[in-house]
Amino acid sequence: MRLRAEFEFSLGAASDIVYRSVLPELGDQMLRSRVELVKRDDLLELMIESEDFTAMRAALNSTLRLMRIACELGRPHVLNTI
């Protein structure tokens, strides 16, 4: 069974920080999942394809956790530049 999840995140000025922070981590692809992150202006598009539910859960957990941490750490920087 092939699973696919797609998300769009409108992060404003933080989108560039999150994208640049998370992208290097996605270079180490998981064995049963493929993760793609695309930046379009202030919008991030996340696409995950997995072979099974377990692989999908693992890919979602790790990728969303990385994005959340990058967003939280990037917030003070974004606020200081406004």
Outline the structure in words:
The protein is α+β, with helices and mostly antiparallel strands. It has a single domain, classed as 2-Layer Sandwich (TATA-Binding Protein). Helices cover 46% and strands 29% of the residues. A three-stranded antiparallel β-sheet has the order 1-3-2, with helices on one face. α1 crosses α2. The protein is elongated. The N and C termini lie far apart (46 Å). The model is unreliable at 78-82 (pLDDT under 50).
Strand order of the largest sheet: 1-3-2
Strand content: 25-35%
What percent of residues adopt helix (DSSP H or I)?
40-55%
- Find the structural class using helix and strand composition: alpha+beta
Q: What is the β-strand count?
A: 3
Task: Tell me the name of the CATH homologous superfamily.
Answer: Alpha-D-phosphohexomutase, C-terminal domain
For the record, the CATH architecture stands as 2-Layer Sandwich
CATH topology tier name: TATA-Binding Protein
CATH class: Alpha Beta
Count of helical segments? 2
- Biggest sheet layout: 3 strands, antiparallel
Number of structurally distinct domains: 1
Instruction: Report how far apart the termini are.
Output: 46 Å
What is the string of helix and strand elements? Answer: EHEEH
> Judging from the principal axes of the Cα atoms, what is the shape?
elongated
Mean pLDDT: 87
Uncertain segments: 78-82
Radius of gyration: 13 Å
Précis, in short:
This protein is of the alpha+beta class. It has one domain: TATA-Binding Protein, CATH 3.30.310.
Question: What is the fold's blueprint, element by element?
Answer:
Elements: E1 3-10, H1 14-22, E2 33-40, E3 43-50, H2 53-81
